[in-house]
Amino acid sequence: MKLTLRGHHLLCLKGFQGYGYSESFTENMIKVNNQRKSENTTVHLTNSPDDICKACPNLKDNICEDELQNRRIVGMDNEVLKKIDASKEYDSVELFEKIDGIFNSRESVSEICFNCIWHEKCLFYQKLSNNR
């Protein structure tokens, strides 16, 4: 199986616990989260709409909400992708282990997660907050 994931969604998947923008978005997120944990799953990285975004009610004409919000989201992606070679395809399990090593403190995700509307519910962010 192959997944295409935005940079910042690598962190979102680690903290996901069932909340979402809509029921179909949440169902898709659960599906993608399960797939990324499966053996023989590869991940292609991007800073544009991915396999999670395709079920998002905020995605219109390949833009997240509006131009301003889209620039913010792409900026979050790029912050993650600065630390990972986005030109190669990854084994999903290995990629998420690598993410744990790179993004392991509150400071390491401050530019990515702090202004996210989900950060108060995100298990990944909360774990980092408690390790401060």
Give a short synopsis of this structure.
This protein has 132 residues and is α+β, with helices and mostly antiparallel strands. The protein has helices at 9-15, 23-36, 67-81, 92-102, 110-113, 123-130, and strands spanning 2-6, 42-46, 59-60, 63-64, 90-91.
Reported for the largest beta sheet, the result is: 3 strands, mixed
Low-confidence stretches: none
- The radius of gyration is 14 Å
Provide the residue-averaged pLDDT.
91
Structural class assignment: alpha+beta
Order of strands side by side in the largest beta sheet? Answer: 1-2-5
Number of strands: 5
Q: What percent of the residues sit in helical stretches (DSSP H or I)?
A: 40-55%
Distance between the termini: 36 Å
What percentage of amino acids are in beta strands? 5-15%
What is the string of SSEs from the N terminus onward?
A: EHHEEEHEHHH
Gross geometry: globular
Number of helices: 6
Describe this structure as you would to a colleague:
- The model has no long low-confidence stretch (mean pLDDT 91).
- The radius of gyration is 14 Å and the shape is globular.
- 28% of the residues are buried.
- The chain is built from 6 helices and 5 strands; from the N terminus they run βααβββαβααα.
- The strands form 2 sheets. The protein has a 3-stranded mixed β-sheet.
- With 132 residues, it is of the alpha+beta class.
